[in-house]
Amino acid sequence: MVAEPFRPQLQRSSRRRRPTGQPPPLPHHLRSSGAGWLIAAIVLTAGSVVIFARGLRGPAVEITVADDAVTRWLATVRVPGLTPAAWDLADAGAIPAMVTIGYGLVAALLVLRRFRHLLVFVASFEVANVLSGAMQLVVHRPRPFGVPVRFGWGGFALPSVEIVCLCVVAVGVLYTLVPAGRWRDIGKFIAAGLVALVALAMIRLGVDAPTDVLAGAAIGVTIPLLAFRWFTPDEAFPIVYRRGRSAHLDLGGRRGEAIRVALKDQLGLVVTEVAPFGLAGSGGSTPMRLRCDGEPGTYLFGKLYARSHLRADRWYKLGRELLYGRLEDEKPFSGVRRLVQQEDYALRLMHDAGLPTPKPHGFVELTPEREYVLVTEFFDHATELGQAAVDDGVIDQGLAIVGQLWHAGLAHRDIKPANLLVRDGHLLLIDVAFAEARPTPWRQAVDLANMMLCLALRAPRSSGGASAGPPCGPACRSPSSSSPPTSPGCSRGTSARLPHFPAPAWAAVPWRRYGWKRNRCPRPPWCPVPARSRSAGHSPELTPEPATQSSPLITTGPAPARCSWPSPPTAVPAAPPR
């Protein structure tokens, strides 16, 4: 037996007392700029309603006089070509142009499949228009006095509807098409300059006053900005144009630092490096490798779960329920915390049952009910089954793992080459997110079928030559001998490795209904039923033919029975009816 590899010891620091009253490592906040825009919008909106709702009385007269003075000064400035330029800018920022750009943005988001951003943008546009229309009906502020209006207008002046639509569309483009960082910062300055030019053009043409423009900008920026930062944060829904799975979130920046802080405070683990790991084989989480402070080569494995993974899990379960009916009708998780708790519980259950699964170290919270990181043992120097050399020992371990699962009353439900690792001749089982206790017979049978399929795809070919027919069942054995077959021609010798444990409930399935009978080898579909068998009233597949000594597939020792059906022909003839 191969000895277990040496596992370096982890060095833990002192944990912080929980709860501490401090915010989570990755808080879900609106940032200082979002809070500033929110305060400005509340002050301008509430102030406009309080001051102008009673008409031109009290402070409303003084504000109107100041606005009209500024508007008359800009409207009377004599600069060649200024008025035509103002007309062009007003046309570019008018409502028809903004609606056209908005439809183009909707089409772009549909092509890019950013449906969440699309819903947030449409909702923000509608909410901003409804709020601005309601304010106009309450305030009833007229257009500037003493200035000729040289552009199309309609309704009351406060707030400026054109500025509201322009700001909503500009913020929507920045937060749905432009990646966060340097390019978005540059885009904000460009959008601010464009809004300022359109606002000056509207004032020059006598359509709006400065107060109208300021109120419209506050409403048009605040509503979409808060909506995008709350419902589509960059940490969970990044704007990227490189190829990759949407389930894989960015592990750098604020999130990477939050992971280190959470691991130190909540688990006492000092992590020096957080790097993505095994992204090709993972579609339901963001896997990572954590380098810990301690002995050289001390690593841990982590899985980041977020709201996006929870939604993907719900759609996945709905699809399986529609495909398999009651065989896969399980309820989705209500939150991300429940999802992580399930996998942590399954890891501890399998580890206690003696299965070769990674040792759990718990999970940490980044953002309450939004992001969590599950930490487990990292199998260093392990190779996926699809790239590893598989021998008889690995096959025996794979079938024994299924036996252990059945004995413990568990089902893995996601056995595939990416979840089977080989290290120093030991077969390891990972990713128990879909594990279930006390499963149905269907799920137990699926585990065995998936394990045998994974092992068969990597098992080396038998040295005894090509098989003379399809492999026999595990119970195809000699009537006079209770030993399982060991010849390469009978199931390639794998039936001898099947684990010996009590048969599950699906062993009582009426096999005759499907043309099978227990403890016999079925007749292949390419072999017609002989006339003598039909006249004798029995089927030849129910009586295995004794093997002869001239068979090249029989090894030394007692000659077990084997199926004598011939190999399938190149052109399969149609079998006559029974």
Helices and strands in order, then pairings?
Elements: H1 31-52, H2 59-75, H3 82-92, H4 95-112, H5 115-139, H6 161-177, H7 182-204, H8 210-231, H9 253-267, E1 271-276, E2 286-292, E3 299-305, H10 307-324, H11 336-352, E4 360-367, E5 371-377, E6 383-384, H12 392-407, E7 410-411, E8 420-423, E9 426-429, E10 436-437, H13 441-458, H14 531-536
Antiparallel strand pairs: 1-2, 2-3, 3-5, 4-5, 6-8, 7-10, 8-9
Helix pairs in contact: 1-8, 3-7, 4-5, 4-6, 5-6, 5-8, 6-7, 6-8, 12-13
Task: Provide an overview of this structure.
- This protein has 14 helices and ten strands.
- It has 578 residues and is α+β, with helices and mostly antiparallel strands.
- It has three domains: 31-231; 253-377, Phosphorylase Kinase, domain 1, CATH 3.30.200; 383-462 and 486-507, Transferase(Phosphotransferase) domain 1 (Transferase(Phosphotransferase), domain 1, Orthogonal Bundle), CATH 1.10.510.
- The strands form three sheets. Strands 1-2-3-5-4 form a five-stranded antiparallel sheet, with helices on both faces.
- The chain starts with 30 loop residues before the first helix and ends in a 42-residue tail after the last helix.
Give the tags.
578 residues, elongated, 5-stranded antiparallel beta sheet, 8% strand, Phosphorylase Kinase, domain 1, 3-stranded antiparallel beta sheet, alpha+beta, Transferase(Phosphotransferase), domain 1, single chain
Strand order of the main beta sheet, please?
Answer: 1-2-3-5-4
- Termini separation: 53 Å
Domain unit count? 3
- The sequence of SSEs as H and E is HHHHHHHHHEEEHHEEEHEEEEHH
Q: Profile the largest sheet.
A: 5 strands, antiparallel
Helical amount among residues, as a percent range?
40-55%
Shape: elongated
User: Low-confidence stretches at least 5 residues in length (pLDDT < 50)?
Assistant: 463-499, 509-522, 531-573
Oligomer: single chain
